[in-house]
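Example record for the data management plan.
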Amino acid sequence: MRSPVFLILLAALFALGAPAQAERLKDMASIAGVRENQLSGYGIVVGLDGTGDQTTQTPFTVQAIMSMLQQKGVTMPPGTQLQLKNVAAVMVTASLPPFAQPGQTIDVTVSSMGNAKSLRGGTLLMTPLQGADGQVYAIAQGNLVVGGAGASSGGSSVQVNTLSVGKISNGATVERAVPSTLGQDNQIRLELKETGFATAARVVEAINDQFGPGVATALDGRVIRVRTPSSSDQRVAFLGLLEGIDVRPAAAAAKVIMNARTGSVVMNQNVTLDACAISHGNLSVTITSENQVSQPAPLSLGTTVASQQAKVELKKDPGKVLHVEGGASLAEVVKAMNAIGATPQDLLAILQALKAAGALHAELEII
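Corresponding structural encoding:
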């Protein structure tokens, strides 16, 4: 049975020889100011079937209930101790999408704050949702949906999901719109998701080829300024075309990512190795480069081509030696190590040693 490392590596090997594919500008960059805004609020869920907060241990639930009753005109006698089992204090969170207008609805997530056993079957009372500026942007209310599956056998039961979190689809109504400065001064700012001067230059070139010279200007390796039409309808059509432009990003920096728990290794096509030798326990790795010259036949008008080949030799015990020849790539080293049964710990130690010795020309990230 093939190891998980080999399977991950096999996919990486197919990707190594493939050139970078063109991507839509919409997938590579975002427009400054066009973003979601996080909202949150403190609320009360009622109607639970005895699975609410234990009020003796969560006094804030009792305080919230008494405050709500006072707002409804109900005054509790002094010294009254509420013993509630069907109520839970919750935090309500939501994401306000860009350009959301009053009257539109958004989904909300309701999470228990206290020691409620379950929110299933509960109803969220009217809860104001505030932004980072303290202003109320939406009001949430509705019946919770707590999904999941359970199984019982022989008197024992197993619950797969978490019962202390529920959702309300379209459970909040937007009450305030976030001011937008899109197209201010007849320009926008594109922000690349990954900083890269070469990629920014290619984006500027693609935009100017599409709409004319001088439309786009790179401010740095991430931000690009683009001139837009003055009218809103023309600006929207312009941005729609802008998002659909295909751009081939520049080659990414050489990087190797390894999961220390599973042994999975992922690398990009820019990873290279120098000649080196490593000894790790009873496992030895030797990487050498051999120069090969291809000379054309006489009178063929061809040219002499010189290339460098790598030879990878791994040895785990005196009776088993594996030779791999090809380009000087880390992919072949990892593939050869998997072929002789090296463990993820062996692979991790060797990759770290290669990086420390300066033979691995890539950033090594261990997760």
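Summary line stored alongside the record: Helices lie at 4-16, 25-28, 59-71, 197-211, 232-243, 330-339, 344-357.
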